[in-house]
Predict the structure.
Amino acid sequence: MEPLVQQTERFSELLAVSCGSLVSTWDAEKVRRALQWARYLLHVYRRFAGRGRVREALERRLPARGGPLGLRSFAALESGDARLALRLLRNRALAPAAARALPSLLFPGPAADHRDDVPQSRLVLLARRGSALRLLCRLGGDAPRSALLRTHAELLDARLHELGGADSAAARKLLDTLWTRGPREHVLDVTAEALLLREEDPETAQITDPAGADETQKLLRWLLESPEVLAAFCRHLPARRLASVAGCHHALSRAYLDLLTTWATRLHYDLQMGAWVPTQMEDMPWEELCLRLQSLCHAQPFLREEVLVTLRSRKTLDGDFEVPGMSIWTDLLLALPGGA
Amino acid sequence: MAQESADLASDYQFWLQKLSAWEQASSKETQKDTCLHLSGFQEFLRQMYEILKEMDSDAILERFPTIGQLLAKACWNPLILAYDESQKIVIWCLCCLVNKEPRTSAESGLNSWIRGLLSHVLSAFRFDMKEVCLFTKSLGYESIDYYPSLLKNMVLSLVSELRESHLNGLNTQSRMAPERMMSLSQVCVPLVTLPDMEPLVEALLTYHGHEPQEVLAPEFFEAVNEAFLLEKIVLPTSSVVSLWFRHLPSLEKATLHLFEKLFSSKIICLRRMECCIRESFLPQAACQPAIFRIVDEMFRFVLLETDGAPEVLAALQVFTSCLVEALKKEKKQLTFALRTYFPYGAPCLAAALSQHPEAIPQGHRLQPLLHISQLLREAVEDCTRGCPRNPFESWFLFVHFGGWVDLPSSRP
């Protein structure tokens, strides 16, 4: 067991440095050995994929030595050789002798066509898939963007799953990093997509992936505990999309509604214009406020209930005016279905 | 040897010119032209590889000084890289070109350039937007992680776009524009055998548009048909039937492919014949009268050309019985639709023949057999009295039904 763990850690270190300048000291023999190790680990993966204990033991030791650039999970053993191959091919720092040997090591030719433990066929498949993506994206339309969003949501989900267990500190750190590096709008779009990931097919999701809710919970918790992100989330996403996300997650719908009511208090009634206007430039205008509340009402019956109850209680607190222009809550209720 | 060399040299020039032409313009016509030449170019690449693998870098450059240009142009053409095994053979050719002992900086430069090209081929898709790239990196993923997932989602998005377009029939705004459908089908031509694309291929084949003419590119149907006949893809029966229904040349090719299997020099037993016919999906497709008529026509032609060769007759009979079986599965009965399947020959004859002799109890088969024989005699005599009905038609109709043909010679 111990030799296996050591081998895995050593390969993980190799993988981690394969992107950097250390490879200038590598020779052809080292590259060959690295690929051999990768092949051995691929066999290990196939042998132990179904065996929980070995898998867990390896996974426990992994993130330590390799870092984020090394082997990140047991599953990464399956593609270690291809990953190493791609990094070395792209690395301009690789010593010339090693770089010369690389192509024929990776692509031995027709003899290796039917072997499933060398990277050749998997790399060739990658090339074909890349061309497919290039061709399909060239067509334009909505498909590339929606596919990208979905893929990023799935990848984010996978990363959150990796940072397993109840420890959400690591998850929060990852999400904070993503938010800082940006681009922010994309992070928000991906977050929305990730929150909707399991909602499309709830029945099968329950059966095949009962623990999947963990990743969603981590994401939700981060969102609700980061006021800046939450505010940006609720302003940036289109009304309808946000309403569908809110419809799936009760805690989010509450927070969203709270934000909307806070933003509503920023508006004041302009007698000359006969309308509710924002106090400052960055406040949410009346039309958008109405649209968002309307979208919530249309999304789900329980959301409509919540909206109406909230607005009605505010209206009462304000003095229960029926005349428009006195209390924003009165006017908002008038603008909503079933509010009057 | 010299002739082969000369042939290769002229082929080489031909392909170099073609590749240059294709990279100049990326119009619909160029795309179409590229798709037509994909398999030819792959063959050429294979030939080149066989030659290159025996030579070292210096020898290659001496014999083919423009080889770098040729391979580079191939690498920058996504249609070529997407097709079948072309990307693999191009990679192998590039590996042959690596100089194992570079002495000059030019030679080292060549190696560096090859590596760059290999790198490009292996990551043919890069995100357009730098920011998106950044996000993927921040998550710690590389192309090997997200290509499969992105392709799967891309296919899913396109499939739902097709489905929605289909459902929104009369709503022209949400319908997929015919030009877009045409481009989509063209782009799929090299990708037909990539397993990830299967849902999209199926969705395209079964998409019944609302335009009066065909919106999909004919080369798409050809590519799918070819891949299906060579057993490089697996498709559900409904998709294959749809393919043949919409693209006549594919149906004809499929029937010829079957005939080649059945009537080649090797004599095959009836059981094997039945297997081939059933696996070809043609009987199931022939439940559509329009398809049946074409296949039947081809059988008729072969029968005439071979003067009624026994194996052709046998194949026709097996085919008809498979058809009847397929119709039964679809809960249709031959009796009701006879006229549509057999517009030739006397209707009463067709009606009599459609009843399978096995369905009639043992002792009562003589009467219907005599009736059929009577009808046939009348058909021939009708002609000798100057009636326009061709006796061949009646005979041709009769020989479809093996059960009746064999009955007189079988034991009572």
Q: What stands out?
A: Chain A touches chain B through 57 residues (CB under 8 Å). The radius of gyration of chain A is 27 Å. The first strand of chain A starts at residue 267 and ends at 270.
